[in-house]
Amino acid sequence: MAQLPVKDDERLTTVGLLFESASGLRRLFQTRLEAERSLSNQSFEVLIRLARSPGSELRMSELAAQASLTPSGLTRSVDRLQEQGLVARRVCPDDRRGAFAVLTTDGRALMDKAIPAHVAHVDEVLRGLYTADEEEMLSLLLRKLRDHLFAADAEWGLTAEDADICPGAE
Amino acid sequence: MAQLPVKDDERLTTVGLLFESASGLRRLFQTRLEAERSLSNQSFEVLIRLARSPGSELRMSELAAQASLTPSGLTRSVDRLQEQGLVARRVCPDDRRGAFAVLTTDGRALMDKAIPAHVAHVDEVLRGLYTADEEEMLSLLLRKLRDHLFAADAEWGLTAEDADICPGAE
DNA sequence: CACCATTATTTGCTTTCGCAACTACATTCG
DNA sequence: CGAATGTAGTTGCGAAAGCAAATAATGGTG
User: Fold this and answer.
1) Please, what sign has the CA dihedral across residues B69, B73, B79, B80?
2) Disulfide check for A74: which of A38, A64, B134, B149 has CB 3.0–4.6 Å away?
């Protein structure tokens, strides 16, 4: 199989596997997070990006890109987290159009507990599945894909957010 | 959260990459499908599973699993496709509780055009990104993950109680 | 400095989706 | 057989998310 082009349906299948894997994981996390922290996976996704950013804060648009939400979706998500007292908004001093989302003290405290628990859950879910090499390979291949997709976003004239995602995550 | 092993951090990042890749692809497909066929990516996902099944039909529950929807979500999705005349329901003769979703003639005709176009789109999006080996590897790794997740679903999918993991089990 | 195009975020509206309750059929077992 | 339990799918309902339009602040131009 070394140099043959990949067949059409193999490609479609791979894409399908990607979607299925993502939603499978999402659902698994969702259940656990809901039960233990009363958080949706999406909320957690937002919170974890904040928790892993310097100063526990990010611009709304940056956060939207990282959390795979549209600006509008993120606005609502942050609204909800604000109501729960986990996140606050801070007006950007340099540009008064802009806003930062910031973890509150409560939010930070929650995440200090939730992140290790989540890591343990991921570990539990993936344990014994991959060799270290495989896991590294998967990470590499996915990063390649993601970077390409976000670059393509700009290229194809879709909503061009700067594709420098996950600054604190890697 | 400060002193997590690096390995775990990488894991979280990989999971993040998976989510981002999936939504990136989803958004890309969505835009194209919406523009060219007035189809959502989710509808297309349902249709393509049917189109690729023997007889262009699948049981509702099987289709739900493949399309990453809950039974209820699939019911609605098939409702919509039925209103559009692309899919029909067929009662299962062996088990009158059950139903098949079947592509109609229109649905088949649509997919006969849409699938090659979609394949071309996927090709366009992925062109030059992976070697054949890499693509095969990605497919392999994702299949492993998906199969594991679906097995896990059956195994301890719904119970949050049995958090007892034996470390070093594998 | 007033004007226009641009960028960052929010809001109105609509669609989609999941959960839980419900219906209908099937299967098991006394 | 007939009640009890299980399974397939649907429905009511509320939450979440996207699109498009609105709002607000910037930046550039003449």
Assistant:
1) negative
2) A64
Summarize pLDDT for B8-37 with one digit per residue, the tens: 678 899 999 999 999 999 999 999 999 898
Strands of the B87-91 sheet, one edge to the other: B57-59, B99-103, B87-91
Number of helices (H) and strands (E) in chain B: give both, helices first. 6, 3
The pTM is what?
0.85
Q: Nearest CA of chain A to the CA of B85: how many Å?
A: 24
CB contact set of A7 (below 8 Å; sequence gap of 6+): none
| pLDDT > 50? residue A158 | no
Contact call for residues B18 and B28 (beta carbons, < 8 A): no
CB pairs under 8 A between A and B: 197
CB within 8 Å of chain B, chain A residues 69-108: none
Cα distances (Å, whole numbers) of residue A63 to A11, A12, A32, B29: 31, 30, 23, 22
Residue type, A138: L
**CA of A98: nucleotide with nearest C1':** C8
Sheet with A57-59, edge to edge strand ranges: A57-59, A99-103, A87-91
